[in-house]
Amino acid sequence: MSDVDLVSLDLSDQSLVGMNLSGSVLHGVDLSDSDLRGIDLSDSDLWDVDLFGADLTGANLTGADLRDTDLPDADLRRRSEGLRPVRR
């Protein structure tokens, strides 16, 4: 599953391990405390997404737009390369 639009969903405390969401749009999605190990979010728009406490170990965030996304306590160990700041 890739290139999907997820808007204003509560997916907190869920397991999305290894899911392919590359090229997707996630706006206003709550992924807090979710297990996102190995998820592919490459080239996705993650605007205003809550990742508080999410496990992003091994996640692919290459080219992802993390505008207004909350990352406190998110586990980004062994994530793929490609995480870069957005210039405004």
Across the major sheet, the strand order is: 1-2-3
Class by helix and strand content?
A: little secondary structure
Helical content stands at under 10%
Report how far the terminal alpha carbons are from each other: 31 Å
- Shape, per Cα inertia axes: globular
SSE order, as H and E? EEE
CATH topology: Pectate Lyase C-like
Quaternary state of this entry equals single chain
Helix count from the secondary structure assignment: 0
SS strand fraction: 5-15%
CATH architecture: 3 Solenoid
> What CATH first level would be assigned?
Mainly Beta
Strand tally is 3
Largest beta-sheet characterization = 3 strands, parallel
Instruction: Outline the low-pLDDT stretches.
Output: none
CATH superfamily: E3 ubiquitin-protein ligase SopA
Radius of gyration: 11 Å
Describe the structure concisely for a colleague.
With 88 residues, this protein is mostly loops. Helix content is 0%, strand content 10%.
Task: Explain what the structure shows.
- The chain is largely without helices or strands and 88 residues long.
- It has one domain: 3 Solenoid (Pectate Lyase C-like).
- It is built from no helices and 3 strands.
- The chain has a 3-stranded parallel beta sheet, with no helix packed on it.
- The termini are far apart.
